[in-house]
């Protein structure tokens, strides 16, 4: 006879025999709880802690990193895997860089990636560049940022040309899928920001312009891109273009902030503040250039007056020298008047010069005028 543990045998209406298997029964009559097999427990443990199964060096290193929180011990084992280039070496290289960053040693993390990346597969290179970009941003090494971003942009643009629509971001053991176009916009924005800190205004302005071209395809608006581009235009002296962009940003941001609903975030308020500050800086540049222009015009006018004064003085010296030989002539008066009349018809003679020549009929006055002009004649070299 079969026990309740083994089940019950019977037959249905068609004469088919069946066996009903029941769950084990405990001493109190209730069904005994189900227990997972050791294999299932191990798999659940590895999945919960996100560590690989097995007892390899890489698996033990991940256990030290994620479970025991022993970063120096994990670094030692991961370094061993990378140097021997053994099992899971590609993953070990990335994990070693992460462990070094966790220990506040980002420069060493960048060095180890650069030293061993040539051994990695081609499909890992983009991931390594992403890690390098994060490290260089933390270190504020803008030259290295530009190099890495240009490589990532080249790969992303090739993917977009081949029809790829999305890009998967992996960060902190989580995956996020974003539009590849959005990825390209972020890369151009990061490139422009790095170039801004390197004072390469022309390249930075071009990077922000490229970002806005891809932004138009997504039909999204980022005020920071336009404000940063306006800053580059200001540094390049293209003030009218900068003013137009800043006024557009300010108008759009204020329009959003004036809505009656409460769905206005801090980004719009920040855009208004940034665009206002940039416009104030632009106004200061305008005022400075206007003052410089006024000073230049005043200096030019003073130089012209001096040069005219020098020319008139030389004329008077010549005219007075000729007239002085005729002072004792009884017809000197008429001759002086004739010379003064001819002086009127000459181009460049002024009314003031005519009056001086007329008054020079008196010999003593003439002598005093010559002395005064000789004493007050300016130096040409000092005003050139």
Automatic annotation (TrEMBL):
<keyword id="KW-0677">Repeat</keyword>
<feature type="region of interest" description="Disordered">
    <location>
        <begin position="1"/>
        <end position="41"/>
    </location>
</feature>
<dbReference type="GO" id="GO:0005634">
    <property type="term" value="C:nucleus"/>
</dbReference>
<feature type="region of interest" description="Disordered">
    <location>
        <begin position="318"/>
        <end position="350"/>
    </location>
</feature>
<feature type="compositionally biased region" description="Low complexity">
    <location>
        <begin position="26"/>
        <end position="41"/>
    </location>
</feature>
<dbReference type="InterPro" id="IPR011990">
    <property type="entry name" value="TPR-like_helical_dom_sf"/>
</dbReference>
<dbReference type="InterPro" id="IPR044961">
    <property type="entry name" value="MS5/SDI1"/>
</dbReference>
<keyword id="KW-0175">Coiled coil</keyword>
<keyword id="KW-0539">Nucleus</keyword>
<protein>
    <submittedName>
        <fullName>Uncharacterized protein</fullName>
    </submittedName>
</protein>
């Amino acid at each position: 006879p079969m026990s309740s543990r083994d089940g019950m045998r019977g037959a249905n209406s068609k004469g088919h025999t069946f066996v009903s298997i029941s769950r084990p029964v405990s001493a109190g009559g209730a069904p005994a709880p189900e227990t997972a097999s050791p294999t299932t427990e191990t798999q659940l443990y590895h999945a919960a802690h996100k560590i690989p199964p097995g007892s390899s060096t890489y698996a033990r290193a991940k256990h030290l990193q994620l479970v025991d929180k022993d970063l120096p011990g994990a670094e030692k084992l991961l370094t061993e895997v990378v140097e021997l280039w053994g099992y899971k070496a590609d993953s070990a290289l990335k994990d070693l860089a992460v462990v070094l960053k966790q220990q506040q040693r980002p420069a060493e993390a960048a060095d180890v990636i650069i030293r061993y990346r040539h051994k990695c597969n081609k499909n890992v290179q983009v991931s390594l560049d992403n890690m390098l970009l994060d490290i260089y941003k933390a270190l504020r090494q803008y030259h290295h940022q530009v190099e890495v971003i240009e490589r990532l942009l080249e790969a992303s643009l090739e993917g977009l040309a081949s029809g790829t629509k999305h890009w998967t971001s992996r960060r902190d053991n989580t995956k996020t899928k974003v539009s590849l176009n959005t990825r390209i916009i972020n890369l151009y924005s990061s490139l422009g920001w790095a170039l801004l800190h390197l004072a390469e205004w022309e390249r930075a302005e071009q990077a922000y312009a490229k970002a806005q071209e891809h932004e138009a395809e997504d039909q999204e608006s980022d005020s920071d891109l336009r404000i940063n581009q306006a800053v580059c235009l200001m540094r390049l002296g293209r003030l009218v273009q900068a003013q137009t962009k800043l006024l557009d940003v300010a108008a759009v941001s204020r329009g959003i902030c004036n809505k009656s609903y409460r769905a206005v975030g801090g980004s719009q308020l920040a855009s208004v503040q940034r665009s206002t500050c940039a416009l104030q800086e632009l106004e200061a540049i305008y005022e400075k250039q206007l003052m410089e222009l006024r000073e230049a015009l005043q200096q030019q006018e003073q130089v012209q007056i001096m040069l005219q004064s020098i020319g008139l003085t030389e004329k008077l010296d010549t005219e007075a020298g000729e007239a002085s030989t005729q002072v004792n002539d009884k017809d000197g008066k008429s001759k002086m008047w004739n010379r003064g009349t001819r002086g009127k018809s000459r181009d460049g003679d002024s009314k003031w010069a005519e009056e001086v020549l007329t008054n020079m009929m008196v010999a003593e006055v003439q002598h005093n005028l010559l002395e005064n002009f000789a004493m007050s004649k300016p130096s040409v070299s000092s005003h050139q």
